Amino acid sequence: MGTSRHVERRTVLKAAGAAAATLGLAATTGCGGDGGSGDGTVTLRYAWWGGEPRAIAIKKTIALFEKKHPKIRIKPEFTDYEAFWEKFQTQASGGNPPDVFQNAVGFLRKYDKRGVLMDLKGQADAGNLSLENFRNGVLANGQVDGKQIGIPVGANTMALVIDLKAFQKAGVTPEFGWTWDEYFTALQTIQDKLRIAGDTGYFSIMYLYDLYLRQNGKAFFTDSGLGFTEDDLTQWWEDGHKRVKSGLVADPKKVEQVKPKSALSAGLAASEFTWDNFSIRYEGEGESDYGLAPIPTGDGKDTGQYLGSLMLSAFSGTKHPEEAARFIDFMVHDPEVGTIMGYDRGILATTEQYDAFTPTDDNNKGVKAYEEEVAAAGALGKITPHPSGADVVEAAFLRIGGEVAQGKSKPADAAKALFSEAKAAFAG
Amino acid sequence: MTLVKEAPARPAGKRRPAAPAAGRRGRRRENLAGYLFMSPWIAGFLLLTAGPMIASLYYAFTSYNLFTPPKWVGLDNFTTMFQDPRWQKSVEVTLKYVVVATPLKLLLALGVALLLAQRRRGQGLYRAAFYMPSLIGASVSVGFVWRALFSDDAIVDRGQKILGVDVGGWIGNPDYVLYALVALSIWQFGAPMVIFLAGLKQVPRELYEAAEVDGAGPVRRFWNITLPMISPVLFFNVLLESIHAFQVFGSAYVVSDTRCGPADATLVYTCYLYQKGFKEAQMGFASAMAWTLVLAVGLVTAVLFRSQKKWVHYEEAGK
Amino acid sequence: MTTATSPAPRSTLTRRRRRGGSLVWHLGALLVLAVVLYPVVWVVGASFKPSKDIIASLDLLPTEPVWANFSGLADGISGIPVSSFFVNSLMYAVLAVVGVVVSSSLTAYAFAKIRFAGRNLLFTLMIGTLLLPYHVLLIPQYVLFRNLELIDTLVPLVAGKFLATEAFFVFLMVQFMRGLPRELDEAARLDGCGHLRTYWSVVLPLTRPALITSAIFTFINAWNDFMGPLIYLNTPSKYTVSLGLMMFRDQEGISNYGSMIAMSLVALVPVVAFFMAFQRYLIDGMATSGLK
């Protein structure tokens, strides 16, 4: 920025300040500034999405970090998922995103393409951030085109959450390596015996379709587009729609009514596909007992699963890249941080943190056991870095899948619509 | 029509007295006074509205993802938009919403305002109670209530079954959920009601008394006195409620759990605009949508303004 | 309650007719009341339900009321005391009210009572700003306030209110002022009052119902505003109530809907209090205006 512009801005600021003072606002006018101050203390903005338990835990880890790094102050910013990304987009387009923030695989390429994310390789080379000790190769989740733009804090994978009581009553036991046919037969048994649907609407979940495609040697995304054909999707949705009509999958009208509660915890169906670390919500929402079951396969072996991650990223334009890197390093490697965070953002990503934390509650124990089983059962696949626009495609998949379920759109038309919307999303 | 019995020092028989300081100097002084009084609005308009408006008008003709500089694409956004099935759906949903919700809400608001304008015991309490929905309307809890009220076997469903209608809950049903939204809008009749009430209070009692002496019944008094006297306020409410209905967003967002569904059944125009602009970062498309809305609503507004000469009664002569 | 004018002495016949009307009146009012308040009662009832019963629960009232939702608020949200959200919201709302009432009434006076060159054009422009969806202005405005380094302050949220950009309120006041008997302000002008005097001592008191209406609406809008605070406020201790509410939501874990409803109910208290305190003046406006 040139000096002349700086002076000009100062003048404008002064005028604005005067105006604010006359309006009685002076007291609330904070200092947006760069966070640097005379005594060498640096302030970093750190943003994440999530609920109250996460906020309380992260605040503890921040206090820990500040104690060990007295020259770095962390300003936390947090809200829920949807609001987070709306706010982030506004801030980033205004050149004002947080210095360090929580990130996910669907947003990596999007914000990399827009120049928002810092390549942390340089900071690692400078010794400010260690890229060692990441478990099961999850570090690769944060890599795009040879750049390290996200550092995983946790790892998780898709799972089938089941209503244990319902499965027991129906006498159905899911086993590793069970096939889709076996899975749907199980749902049929549940429907016959208990008069409830088996599943809540599997065919609108992008990440599940991704697994199905991977089992068949494809994937939902390539680096730049979709990894399947319109016919593939038409078939997938036709099967889905048939199962809604037969009652094997819950009535979408009822599923819609109980939102934001899950149809599984509302007792409308006996199972639901989701990420394993989300499974805690069912205990909190529903009356039954819930457990994790394996993903069905095509060939009795390959589930198509891979480890996904929440990660931390840094803003490419931060004024304090070194401090940001040190902060991320602390957050992913410090054992004490691991014990505080637990599996809130997935199974801890580094060995230091993984070893430091032993789950004590049933839910976390279940998640740990599940992931160990998945890892033992076969080779975990590698994640495809989603193309820019993947977040939009995911939302479209859910919405259009819902239209199919409601009978408002024919599977073939729906698949066509998804392809046309995806094309626009990737171009954006 | 004589409105004020003892208007001080009113020149007899003169409908339009000359401005206090007539002549060119007076006019210049009036201009100056006008602009001085308007100065906050002018500053706000130039600083906060005009710039962003012009920017968004420019974006409407560009491809703009908020990060890379806008690229001029001419009318592309508009042609894409008109062919976009979701855009067409949003227009259909919005028109249906406006046409059904606005008149019903205003009728209820006016009816209740007339009721409350009568002096009765406890009228203050009623007024406050009727305004409650507007107070909590934007709150997140409304989303929960509305979903609960319009679900299977909830009160609305039970009510309609008594009437022999069995369509189930409205919330999950793409064919009915929009009417749950309409109901939410009507339920919040408090704002136009308060404006009607304030307007009704401006009608001088003397007019009614004079009419009563002349033997006019309640219906005639309503048509001949109340309606003309509150017509500026009625006009305001009609105009504003229609504009608001065209721009409805919050309730669709809350009732449909932020997705404006199911199956796009509550995809009101602004919701789609919002998804395009803030979720998909297609600011060019979103701006094209915005300006199309401005033109459409502007047209409706212009027609309404045109029509007011016929039915709106202002004390100030001419405009 | 004070009333505008004392009615002329009436015959016993009219009085009896009024008593019959009174019954019908109350029946009608009660009917509307029942419909209007059912959802309100539902919200209140829900705030006493255990968190997992709130969504998709069809019952009006809890089977066994619990206090946990409210008592949980005492600990604050995500480590921030609940009072802090309230203070922030209150500051925002009060400033917004002051800004809107002052700036909109001045602007409205000019539109309604002063004949100046370009008035019709500016009026059309002002109505035009009503038509533009707020969301498309958001990004350019954000960039402006960022360049002024005013992000994370209240300034972006209230600046527009002090600059009469809320065309809705200007328009409302214009409609009211245009409905005022012209003779009053003309008389004042003939008496030699300047526009400022006329505005202050003649027009403003008569426009009181509109001013109060605007104040009430502004207060509620500011109090419930979600998008503005979300975009402009970064530091959680500066968050308003509406942002605080979202902290109970968690797509990946357990959402605390119980506390969310409880808090949204507690958040209503200032709004209802504000409304109760001022709604009286809506009605008394004419009585005190000297227009008897």
Describe this entry's structure for a reader:
The complex is a heterotrimer of chains A (428), B (319) and C (292). Residues 1-35 of chain A have low confidence and may be disordered. Chain A is an alpha/beta fold. Chain A folds into two domains: 42-154 and 307-360, Periplasmic binding protein-like II (D-Maltodextrin-Binding Protein, domain 2, 3-Layer(aba) Sandwich); 158-274 and 294-302 and 384-427, Periplasmic binding protein-like II (D-Maltodextrin-Binding Protein, domain 2). Chain A has 17 helices and 13 strands. In chain A, helix 2 (52-68) runs antiparallel to helix 13, helix 6 crosses helix 7 (180-194) and helix 16 (390-405) runs antiparallel to helix 17 (411-427). Chain B has helices at residues 23-59, 76-83, 85-117, 123-136, 140-149, 155-162, 177-187, 190-201, 205-213, 218-229, 231-246, 250-255, 269-279, 283-311; strands at residues 62-63, 71-72. With 319 residues, chain B is mainly alpha-helical. Chain B has a two-stranded antiparallel ribbon with strand order 1-2. The longest helix of chain B has 37 residues, at 23-59. Residues 1-21 of chain B have low confidence and may be disordered. In chain B, a hairpin with a 7-residue loop joins strand 1 (62-63) and strand 2 (71-72). Helices cover 68% and strands 0% of the residues of chain C. Chain C starts with 11 loop residues before the first helix and ends in an 8-residue tail after the last helix. Residues 1-11 and 285-292 of chain C have low confidence and may be disordered. Classes of the chains: A alpha/beta (428), B mainly alpha (319), C mainly alpha (292). Chains in contact: A-B, A-C, B-C. Chains B and C meet through helix 1, helix 3, helix 4, helix 5 and helix 8 of B and helix 1, helix 4, helix 5, helix 6 and helix 7 of C.
